[in-house]
Amino acid sequence: MSNRPLSSPPLRSTTTRTAVPPSGAPLPGIGRLRRLAPWFVPERPGPGTLAAHVLLTGHGSLWTDHPAAPRVAVARCGSFRVLRGDPRLLSPELLAPLQRGQFSAPDEFLPLLGRTFGTVTPWVRLICTQQHRPRRRPVPAGVRLRPLTPADAARLDAAGPELRWVTETWGSSRAVVATGGAWGAFVEGRLVSLAVCHLRGLAHEDLAVATAPEFRRGGLGLACVLATATAARHRGKLPTWTAPRSNGPSRALAEAAGFRPVREELAYWVGAARLTGAALRRSSGQAEQSPRV
User: Fold this and answer.
1) Least packed by Cβ within 10 Å: which of 63, 74, 96, 280?
2) pTM of this prediction exceeds 0.90
3) Domain boundaries of the chain, sorted by first residue
Protein backbone atom coordinates (compact mmCIF):
# COMPACT_ATOMS: atom_id res chain seq x y z
CA MET A 1 0.00 0.00 0.00
CA SER A 2 1.44 3.36 -1.05
CA ASN A 3 2.24 6.04 1.53
CA ARG A 4 1.83 8.76 -1.04
CA PRO A 5 -0.76 11.39 0.05
CA LEU A 6 -3.93 11.20 -1.96
CA SER A 7 -5.33 14.19 -3.79
CA SER A 8 -8.36 13.88 -1.56
CA PRO A 9 -11.22 16.35 -1.08
CA PRO A 10 -10.33 19.40 1.01
CA LEU A 11 -10.52 19.03 4.77
CA ARG A 12 -13.81 20.18 6.17
CA SER A 13 -13.57 22.61 9.05
CA THR A 14 -15.87 23.47 11.90
CA THR A 15 -14.99 26.79 13.52
CA THR A 16 -18.41 28.04 14.54
CA ARG A 17 -18.31 29.83 17.90
CA THR A 18 -20.95 28.55 20.32
CA ALA A 19 -21.70 29.59 23.86
CA VAL A 20 -21.45 26.92 26.55
CA PRO A 21 -25.06 26.15 27.53
CA PRO A 22 -26.41 26.09 31.10
CA SER A 23 -25.96 22.89 33.09
CA GLY A 24 -28.25 20.18 31.76
CA ALA A 25 -28.82 21.86 28.38
CA PRO A 26 -27.82 20.12 25.12
CA LEU A 27 -24.19 20.64 24.15
CA PRO A 28 -24.03 22.28 20.69
CA GLY A 29 -21.94 20.33 18.19
CA ILE A 30 -20.92 17.60 20.64
CA GLY A 31 -22.98 15.05 18.71
CA ARG A 32 -20.30 15.33 16.02
CA LEU A 33 -17.82 13.68 18.38
CA ARG A 34 -19.69 10.40 18.03
CA ARG A 35 -18.68 10.36 14.37
CA LEU A 36 -15.04 10.64 15.47
CA ALA A 37 -15.06 7.58 17.75
CA PRO A 38 -12.77 5.98 18.71
CA TRP A 39 -10.33 8.85 18.11
CA PHE A 40 -11.89 11.23 20.66
CA VAL A 41 -14.62 9.09 22.26
CA PRO A 42 -14.41 8.00 25.01
CA GLU A 43 -12.52 11.10 26.07
CA ARG A 44 -9.02 10.65 27.47
CA PRO A 45 -7.37 13.22 29.77
CA GLY A 46 -4.86 15.67 28.38
CA PRO A 47 -4.73 16.55 24.66
CA GLY A 48 -7.48 13.97 24.10
CA THR A 49 -9.90 16.72 25.18
CA LEU A 50 -8.90 18.96 22.26
CA ALA A 51 -11.77 18.06 19.92
CA ALA A 52 -14.34 18.57 22.66
CA HIS A 53 -12.71 21.91 23.59
CA VAL A 54 -13.08 23.14 20.01
CA LEU A 55 -16.73 22.11 19.82
CA LEU A 56 -17.64 23.30 23.33
CA THR A 57 -15.93 26.69 23.14
CA GLY A 58 -15.78 27.53 19.44
CA HIS A 59 -12.05 28.24 19.72
CA GLY A 60 -9.74 26.40 17.33
CA SER A 61 -10.60 24.17 14.39
CA LEU A 62 -11.64 20.57 13.82
CA TRP A 63 -11.17 19.28 10.27
CA THR A 64 -12.26 16.02 8.69
CA ASP A 65 -12.20 14.67 5.14
CA HIS A 66 -15.92 13.85 5.26
CA PRO A 67 -18.64 15.15 7.62
CA ALA A 68 -20.61 11.90 7.97
CA ALA A 69 -17.94 9.20 7.61
CA PRO A 70 -14.54 10.76 8.40
CA ARG A 71 -11.39 8.80 7.70
CA VAL A 72 -8.97 11.40 9.06
CA ALA A 73 -9.28 14.23 11.59
CA VAL A 74 -7.10 17.21 12.44
CA ALA A 75 -7.83 19.22 15.61
CA ARG A 76 -6.03 22.46 16.38
CA CYS A 77 -6.18 25.05 19.15
CA GLY A 78 -3.40 27.33 20.32
CA SER A 79 -0.13 25.43 20.00
CA PHE A 80 -1.88 22.03 20.23
CA ARG A 81 -2.45 19.81 17.17
CA VAL A 82 -3.95 16.32 17.16
CA LEU A 83 -3.88 14.00 14.12
CA ARG A 84 -5.96 10.84 13.94
CA GLY A 85 -7.00 8.42 11.22
CA ASP A 86 -5.39 7.63 7.86
CA PRO A 87 -2.30 9.78 7.10
CA ARG A 88 -2.51 8.92 3.39
CA LEU A 89 -5.47 11.28 3.13
CA LEU A 90 -3.31 14.26 4.13
CA SER A 91 -0.51 16.04 2.33
CA PRO A 92 2.25 18.52 3.29
CA GLU A 93 0.24 21.26 1.58
CA LEU A 94 -2.69 20.66 3.93
CA LEU A 95 -0.60 20.46 7.12
CA ALA A 96 1.84 23.31 6.37
CA PRO A 97 -0.32 26.02 8.02
CA LEU A 98 -0.01 24.10 11.31
CA GLN A 99 3.70 24.94 11.61
CA ARG A 100 5.35 25.80 14.93
CA GLY A 101 3.19 23.69 17.20
CA GLN A 102 3.09 20.46 19.21
CA PHE A 103 1.55 17.40 17.58
CA SER A 104 -0.09 14.39 19.17
CA ALA A 105 -0.04 11.78 16.42
CA PRO A 106 0.38 8.01 15.99
CA ASP A 107 3.67 6.75 14.56
CA GLU A 108 2.23 6.33 11.07
CA PHE A 109 2.02 10.14 10.74
CA LEU A 110 5.77 10.65 11.29
CA PRO A 111 6.81 10.40 7.61
CA LEU A 112 4.20 13.03 6.75
CA LEU A 113 5.40 15.35 9.52
CA GLY A 114 8.97 14.95 8.28
CA ARG A 115 7.98 15.86 4.72
CA THR A 116 5.97 18.87 5.90
CA PHE A 117 8.19 20.58 8.47
CA GLY A 118 11.89 21.43 8.58
CA THR A 119 12.32 20.17 12.15
CA VAL A 120 10.38 17.55 14.10
CA THR A 121 11.53 17.22 17.71
CA PRO A 122 10.13 14.40 19.86
CA TRP A 123 9.57 14.89 23.58
CA VAL A 124 7.75 12.99 26.30
CA ARG A 125 4.90 14.57 28.22
CA LEU A 126 3.18 13.30 31.33
CA ILE A 127 -0.60 13.20 31.50
CA CYS A 128 -1.74 13.48 35.13
CA THR A 129 -5.04 13.48 37.00
CA GLN A 130 -5.75 14.81 40.47
CA GLN A 131 -5.83 11.69 42.65
CA HIS A 132 -4.51 12.67 46.09
CA ARG A 133 -5.06 15.24 48.80
CA PRO A 134 -2.96 18.34 47.96
CA ARG A 135 -0.28 19.84 50.18
CA ARG A 136 -1.92 23.17 50.94
CA ARG A 137 0.05 26.22 51.99
CA PRO A 138 -1.35 29.42 53.52
CA VAL A 139 -1.72 32.30 51.11
CA PRO A 140 0.97 34.89 51.97
CA ALA A 141 -0.05 38.09 53.67
CA GLY A 142 -0.93 40.87 51.26
CA VAL A 143 -2.10 38.45 48.54
CA ARG A 144 -5.72 38.27 47.50
CA LEU A 145 -6.89 35.03 45.87
CA ARG A 146 -10.15 35.18 43.89
CA PRO A 147 -11.83 34.04 40.68
CA LEU A 148 -11.22 36.19 37.63
CA THR A 149 -14.16 38.15 36.24
CA PRO A 150 -14.71 40.03 32.96
CA ALA A 151 -13.43 43.15 34.72
CA ASP A 152 -9.98 41.48 34.94
CA ALA A 153 -9.43 41.23 31.17
CA ALA A 154 -7.42 44.47 31.08
CA ARG A 155 -5.28 43.30 34.02
CA LEU A 156 -4.44 40.08 32.19
CA ASP A 157 -3.65 42.01 29.00
CA ALA A 158 -1.27 44.20 30.99
CA ALA A 159 0.39 41.27 32.78
CA GLY A 160 2.89 40.57 29.99
CA PRO A 161 3.78 37.40 28.08
CA GLU A 162 4.81 35.49 31.23
CA LEU A 163 1.12 35.27 32.19
CA ARG A 164 -0.71 36.00 28.96
CA TRP A 165 0.40 32.79 27.21
CA VAL A 166 -2.35 30.89 29.06
CA THR A 167 -4.89 32.60 26.80
CA GLU A 168 -3.66 30.72 23.70
CA THR A 169 -6.47 28.14 23.73
CA TRP A 170 -9.18 30.77 24.28
CA GLY A 171 -8.11 33.43 21.81
CA SER A 172 -8.06 36.42 24.17
CA SER A 173 -7.89 37.56 27.77
CA ARG A 174 -11.56 38.51 27.58
CA ALA A 175 -12.49 34.91 26.67
CA VAL A 176 -10.38 33.42 29.49
CA VAL A 177 -11.87 35.55 32.26
CA ALA A 178 -15.38 34.80 31.00
CA THR A 179 -14.95 31.02 31.35
CA GLY A 180 -15.59 30.83 35.09
CA GLY A 181 -12.56 28.54 35.20
CA ALA A 182 -9.75 30.95 36.12
CA TRP A 183 -8.42 32.05 39.51
CA GLY A 184 -5.81 34.70 40.16
CA ALA A 185 -3.53 35.98 42.90
CA PHE A 186 -3.35 39.76 43.26
CA VAL A 187 -0.79 41.93 45.03
CA GLU A 188 -1.76 45.57 45.46
CA GLY A 189 -4.27 45.15 42.64
CA ARG A 190 -1.76 43.60 40.24
CA LEU A 191 -2.43 40.14 38.81
CA VAL A 192 0.78 38.21 39.58
CA SER A 193 -0.31 34.57 39.19
CA LEU A 194 -3.24 32.71 37.65
CA ALA A 195 -4.44 29.22 36.84
CA VAL A 196 -6.95 28.51 34.09
CA CYS A 197 -8.84 25.71 32.42
CA HIS A 198 -6.56 25.39 29.37
CA LEU A 199 -8.57 22.69 27.58
CA ARG A 200 -12.22 22.09 28.48
CA GLY A 201 -13.48 18.60 27.68
CA LEU A 202 -16.70 16.75 28.38
CA ALA A 203 -15.30 14.92 31.40
CA HIS A 204 -11.92 16.60 32.00
CA GLU A 205 -10.41 20.06 32.35
CA ASP A 206 -6.69 20.35 31.64
CA LEU A 207 -5.20 23.14 33.76
CA ALA A 208 -2.39 25.62 33.14
CA VAL A 209 -0.68 28.03 35.53
CA ALA A 210 1.54 31.07 35.10
CA THR A 211 3.27 33.30 37.66
CA ALA A 212 5.25 36.50 37.26
CA PRO A 213 8.98 35.67 37.70
CA GLU A 214 9.48 37.79 40.82
CA PHE A 215 6.58 36.02 42.60
CA ARG A 216 7.53 32.42 41.87
CA ARG A 217 8.30 29.84 44.58
CA GLY A 218 5.97 31.60 46.98
CA GLY A 219 3.07 29.17 46.74
CA LEU A 220 0.88 31.47 44.64
CA GLY A 221 0.77 29.14 41.63
CA LEU A 222 -0.20 26.22 43.86
CA ALA A 223 -2.98 28.25 45.50
CA CYS A 224 -4.38 29.25 42.10
CA VAL A 225 -4.20 25.66 40.79
CA LEU A 226 -6.04 24.27 43.80
CA ALA A 227 -8.80 26.87 43.50
CA THR A 228 -9.17 26.22 39.76
CA ALA A 229 -9.19 22.44 40.29
CA THR A 230 -11.90 22.79 42.93
CA ALA A 231 -14.00 24.89 40.53
CA ALA A 232 -13.58 22.21 37.84
CA ARG A 233 -14.81 19.53 40.23
CA HIS A 234 -17.84 21.67 41.07
CA ARG A 235 -18.63 21.58 37.33
CA GLY A 236 -18.42 17.79 37.41
CA LYS A 237 -15.04 17.62 35.61
CA LEU A 238 -11.86 15.75 36.59
CA PRO A 239 -8.89 18.16 36.77
CA THR A 240 -5.88 17.06 34.69
CA TRP A 241 -2.32 18.29 34.20
CA THR A 242 -0.03 17.95 31.18
CA ALA A 243 3.69 18.69 31.42
CA PRO A 244 6.97 17.71 29.74
CA ARG A 245 8.65 14.89 31.63
CA SER A 246 11.80 17.04 31.73
CA ASN A 247 10.05 20.02 33.40
CA GLY A 248 10.93 19.48 37.05
CA PRO A 249 9.20 22.60 38.48
CA SER A 250 5.94 21.80 36.70
CA ARG A 251 6.04 18.21 37.91
CA ALA A 252 6.75 19.33 41.48
CA LEU A 253 3.84 21.78 41.46
CA ALA A 254 1.53 19.11 40.03
CA GLU A 255 2.55 16.63 42.73
CA ALA A 256 1.97 19.21 45.47
CA ALA A 257 -1.53 19.79 44.03
CA GLY A 258 -2.32 16.07 44.20
CA PHE A 259 -1.79 15.19 40.54
CA ARG A 260 -0.22 11.88 39.59
CA PRO A 261 0.72 10.52 36.13
CA VAL A 262 -1.71 8.15 34.42
CA ARG A 263 0.31 7.77 31.22
CA GLU A 264 3.18 9.12 29.14
CA GLU A 265 2.74 10.36 25.59
CA LEU A 266 5.30 11.01 22.88
CA ALA A 267 4.63 14.39 21.28
CA TYR A 268 6.37 16.24 18.45
CA TRP A 269 7.27 19.90 18.33
CA VAL A 270 7.54 21.05 14.72
CA GLY A 271 9.24 24.11 13.32
CA ALA A 272 8.61 26.06 10.13
CA ALA A 273 6.96 24.39 7.16
CA ARG A 274 9.13 23.41 4.22
CA LEU A 275 6.76 25.33 1.96
CA THR A 276 7.64 29.01 1.79
CA GLY A 277 6.39 32.21 0.26
CA ALA A 278 3.52 31.99 -2.20
CA ALA A 279 3.21 28.21 -1.84
CA LEU A 280 2.61 28.54 1.92
CA ARG A 281 0.09 31.34 1.39
CA ARG A 282 -1.82 29.18 -1.10
CA SER A 283 -1.75 26.31 1.40
CA SER A 284 -3.12 28.54 4.17
CA GLY A 285 -5.83 29.81 1.85
CA GLN A 286 -6.89 26.27 1.00
CA ALA A 287 -7.32 25.44 4.70
CA GLU A 288 -9.25 28.64 5.41
CA GLN A 289 -11.65 28.06 2.50
CA SER A 290 -12.47 24.47 3.40
CA PRO A 291 -16.23 24.05 3.85
CA ARG A 292 -17.61 23.66 7.35
CA VAL A 293 -18.99 20.38 8.58
Assistant:
1) 280
2) no
3) 12-119+271-288, 128-264
